[in-house]
Design goal:
Number of helices: 4
Radius of gyration: 25 Å
Order of helices and strands: HHHHEEEE
Number of domains: 2
Helix content: 25-40%
Shape: elongated
Strand order of the largest sheet: 1-2-3-4
Number of strands: 4
Structural class: alpha+beta
């Protein structure tokens, strides 16, 4: 078959090809949007579990989530840098937040460049900001380490 013997143009096949391309572009866009919305979901889930344990006043479980070690009581000497007593001073009923009755994850994201984030590449953790006890003006800011899902106080504190 030569160029002069080519099949005639079929408009139905052209429409079909165009519709497939549009559908694929739409699917890629939807998948991208879903990924964008859920990119911090694992870190948000850890923080949500942490605050649920605090709401139930299950401080041993909350400490286990903080350290990402549910069996922390088997080897408490590994956590001498931030002991359970220090944890209770921060998160117990006499801590900054008092008795935690409610929480809502407000936002999650990487810290701005130069504030705990490396100059190049992605940071080692995610900042999760939580509204505690309906305090709108003052929010808790937690750091979730991406590698092992341990919690800590965020190096970046957003302005109130």
């Amino acid at each position: 078959m030569t160029l002069f013997e080519a099949k005639p143009y079929d408009p139905a096949q052209g429409r079909k090809r165009r519709n497939i391309i549009i559908a694929l572009a739409f699917v890629v866009l939807v998948i991208g949007l879903i990924w964008w919305q859920l990119r911090f979901w694992p870190e948000e889930r850890v923080v949500d579990r942490f605050f649920n344990a605090l709401q139930q006043q299950n401080f041993d479980q909350a400490y286990g989530i903080w350290m990402n070690d549910p069996d922390w009581k088997q080897h408490p000497d590994q956590y001498s840098r931030y002991t359970i007593n220090d944890f209770l001073k921060d998160w117990g009923p006499s801590g900054e937040w008092g008795i935690i009755k409610s929480h809502k994850i407000y936002a999650a994201g990487y810290p701005p460049r130069g504030r705990g984030a490396p100059a190049f590449g992605s940071p080692s953790g995610v900042v999760v900001i939580v509204t505690v006890n309906d305090r709108i003006a003052h929010k808790a800011s937690l750091w979730v380490q991406k590698a092992d899902k341990t919690l800590g106080f965020s190096p970046y504190v957003p302005p109130d």
